[in-house]
Amino acid sequence: MIINAKDFGVVPNRESAQALEKMLISLQNNDDEKTVVFEKGDYLIDSSKIKSRMLYITNTVGDKEFSSKETPHKSRCPLCFEGIKNAVIDFGGARFVIDGKATNVCLINCENVVLKNGEITAKEPDLHRIKVLSKTAFSVDFEVTGNYYIKNHALCFKGKDFDYNAMKKYRIAWHTAHIKAEDENTVKRNGRVFAGAVFAKEIRKGVVRVHYLSTAMFAVGDMYYLFDNRREFVGIFLDNSKNITLENMAQSFNYSLAVVAQCCENLTIKNCDFSPEKSVHIASLADFIQICMCSGDVLIENNYFEGACDDCLNAHGIHFKIKKINGSKMTVSFMHPQTHGFNPLFAGDKIIYTDPASLIEKGSAEIVSSKLIDEYNIELEVTGANGAQVGFAVEDLTRIPNVTFRNNTLNRIITRGLLLTIRGRAVVENNHFMSNSMSGILLSDDAKSWYESGACRDVLIKDNVFDYCGEVPILIKPENRVNGGCVHKNVRIIGNTFKKYSGEVMNIKCSENIEITDNIFEQSSDCLLYTSPSPRDLSTSR
């Protein structure tokens, strides 16, 4: 069955928010195989005309980040696919231009859906570049892009859905991005762009002089990107969906995470382009891809990633803290303020009880029933509580995917390339890590800070090229505080090429059965650094 978007009034060069909503609702009661076809061209979307929904999205905005006048987690989304099955959405080269802040795409309770051949961008987004043109001992002349104005001797930014004093907002803001003149492919965080700033005035159109107590930190040609780091809106949100494919999709800008998959089964992201528009250096204001509490197989292949203000990929589960135990019933809680409001624990799932200090399993059980009793707490009935203690963490072993990350290019990533915290099989193969300001690959696990689980049990890191990493390229570092034994196991690091390093290229903690073979260390003087306890059954060769 072919369904034409134009039959619903969804046509290029026209504001399309309400027409899109009407079309998407019509798909909900049709489970037949179908292809929705768009005409090539620009589709305009006004944020004020988008329907709002309650969206609880992992690793995004916390309740306390909303003002008293706002409804927490009430979010706009112009392309919301809800309850849709057996559909190919062929955008046919359509380019969606969103004027204002919104979550670009949602797939909620969907099954067997392909999104392909489309592009999503933003019109004059809340992302602002200031470039150092010249400086004196007490002033800096910045080239300022976008809509700005001077009010009360302060630089302010204004646009659709934002209007604020930038010198106040970014006086001390740890998340702003800094790109040095001599290396446009390396982006690092800088939290003091306007620290010590006294006042600003416009010298000419597009040039603003800011007076400082000291300008020692600035260099001519350096660029700073300023943006709101409240993760209220995401690019593509996949929730409780199965067999989803993103193919030949492009996102040149999104307001936090580019893709979030939450409680999904089987996901493919291939031949996609996550890179900014020409002359811009940032495409995503947080991670490019976040995989949380998913299952089945996740394939991320042949994609281009450029310009993220957090990780390229973060794949993990959730450590829930045990708050109460009463026989076979227990109450467990979300602990990080940016993740809550949904229930990813299901009857029949296998769980383990983990000591948060050592990250070692102390017992296991199966969930009999699961009920979300409020935004932060879940009531479980389990087959047994042996090994469980109040304060221990619960990890769901059923909601763990196998992840393959293959043939991708990563450039200008402000933190890590890959953050992997999963027990499923992980394959990281034939990727080009051009520039990561932290580690290229981090195997983590913690039950004290981000509460992202769990231990890695089968990891292959093979035939990758690491051009530049600001920190040790491969870091295996579970966040345990007590040595109760090895946390990560069975990691193979084979045939990789490491460039431009004067120190160690691997740092391994609390792990065993690590194989390191046939790697090329072009400039490194110290290949490996082990921290107590050292890996056991270790084999290495160059």
Brief summary of the model shown:
This protein is mainly beta.
SSE blueprint and pairings:
Layout: E1 2-4, H1 17-26, E2 34-37, E3 41-46, E4 52-54, E5 74-76, E6 79-82, E7 85-99, E8 105-108, E9 111-122, E10 127-135, E11 139-144, E12 148-151, E13 154-159, E14 162-165, H2 166-169, E15 177-179, E16 187-189, E17 197-204, E18 207-212, E19 223-227, E20 236-239, E21 242-251, E22 259-262, E23 265-270, E24 273-274, E25 289-292, E26 295-301, E27 304-308, E28 313-318, E29 320-326, E30 329-333, E31 350-354, E32 361-372, E33 377-382, E34 393-396, E35 401-406, E36 409-413, E37 418-421, E38 425-429, E39 432-433, E40 441-443, E41 452-453, E42 458-462, E43 465-466, E44 474-476, E45 488-494, E46 497-498, E47 506-509, E48 511-517, E49 520-521, E50 528-531, E51 539-540
Parallel strand pairs: 1-2, 2-7, 3-7, 6-8, 7-9, 8-20, 9-21, 20-22, 21-23, 22-25, 23-26, 24-27, 25-28, 26-35, 27-36, 28-37, 35-38, 36-39, 37-40, 38-42, 39-43, 40-44, 42-45, 43-46, 44-47, 45-48, 46-49, 47-50, 48-51
Antiparallel strand pairs: 4-5, 10-11, 10-19, 11-18, 12-13, 13-14, 15-16, 15-19, 17-18, 28-41, 29-30, 29-34, 30-33, 31-32, 31-34, 32-33
